[in-house]
Write a structure and sequence with these properties.
Length: about 300
């Protein structure tokens, strides 16, 4: 990474393609808007002019096979960011609240769940994995992965992705940073970030296996591989730097109504949702990664 925490802005706009692996909630729109806000805020905090980022969004879930509009041409972009994704979708959903119970107790009338996990073989996920491999096979366009995108990157590199036996990791959590992680994330010792996942990359970066050439950046007792990095090639995080408290609280309530975790887990996550989270630090790290060159090591 650049030795300076405030690198010189690019002389021409960075062309960043956001691959939207889902929307968030109806009231918050799609991931493209959230990442645009995060990256523009990060650029401003680095003192970059507003026009140094040229961001586009691509709906890779609904892209049909052979539809060139589903993915960007690599010649037309400088970086690809793979977004998060819900771990489940509801094909038909009808809830009614139990009037005899406190908030959080709901009865599901109709239940048709479509799982969306990075290790599944849905057509759109397989296409995304293949595109990610194309990005990784060349040396100019750089890759950023967030949550589901972190896991897809691991899968594209050959690492196993699976459901954690430890359950969910939710709301604001503290990441322990490696020496390289401290260097990349503003020199911090610990990084607080929003989290919303149960799936993990089983292998850790820097260990024997498909991720051995990557550097681990962060870990928790729940998830050993919280972030990984390779200079001028890729950077990923398992957490959600683009989320704020309002979004996380709504997601927690929605998933509690879907009975995806216990009331105790829900209440603990809600209590921590207002803690300080440092998504902007991650956004700055993403931008510094995009402008690092050979001299940065």
């Amino acid at each position: 990474m650049p030795s300076s925490l405030s690198p010189v802005p690019p002389t021409v706009p960075l062309r960043i393609a956001i691959l939207e692996a889902d929307d968030v909630l109806d009231q918050y729109g799609r991931y493209g808007g959230l990442y645009t806000s995060l990256l523009q805020a990060a650029a401003g905090s680095l003192g970059w002019p507003h026009d140094r980022l040229d961001i586009s969004a691509w709906d890779v879930v609904n892209a049909k096979e052979g539809n060139v509009w589903g993915y960007p041409r690599l010649d037309d972009v400088d970086a690809v960011l793979i977004s998060g994704s819900s771990e489940s979708r509801w094909d038909v959903l009808d809830f009614r609240e139990d009037p005899e119970a406190n908030f959080g107790s709901w009865v599901v009338e109709t239940r048709h769940m479509l799982w969306v996990d990075a290790y599944e073989d849905h057509d759109w996920i397989l296409r995304l994995v293949e595109f990610t491999k194309e990005v990784l096979a060349q040396t100019r366009v750089r890759l950023i992965g967030v949550c589901f995108g972190h896991q897809i990157t691991g899968r594209a590199l050959g690492a196993p992705v699976a459901r954690s036996e430890k359950g969910y990791e939710l709301s604001v959590i503290k990441l322990n940073l490696t020496a390289k992680g401290k260097e990349i994330f503003d020199g911090k010792d610990v990084l607080s970030i929003m989290s919303m996942h149960r799936d993990i990359i089983v292998d850790n970066a820097g260990t024997v296996g498909p991720l051995q050439d990557l550097e681990p950046l962060a870990f928790t007792s729940h998830t050993e591989n919280q972030s990984m990095y390779q200079a001028r090639r890729l950077i990923t995080v398992q957490g959600h730097p683009e989320f704020n408290q309002e979004i996380v609280c709504e997601l927690l309530k929605t998933r509690r109504r879907q009975n995806l975790y216990s009331q105790e887990t829900f209440e603990s996550a809600m209590e921590r949702s207002g803690n300080v989270q440092e998504g902007l630090v991650v956004g700055r790290a993403f931008l510094r990664f995009l402008v690092e060159d050979e001299a940065d090591g």
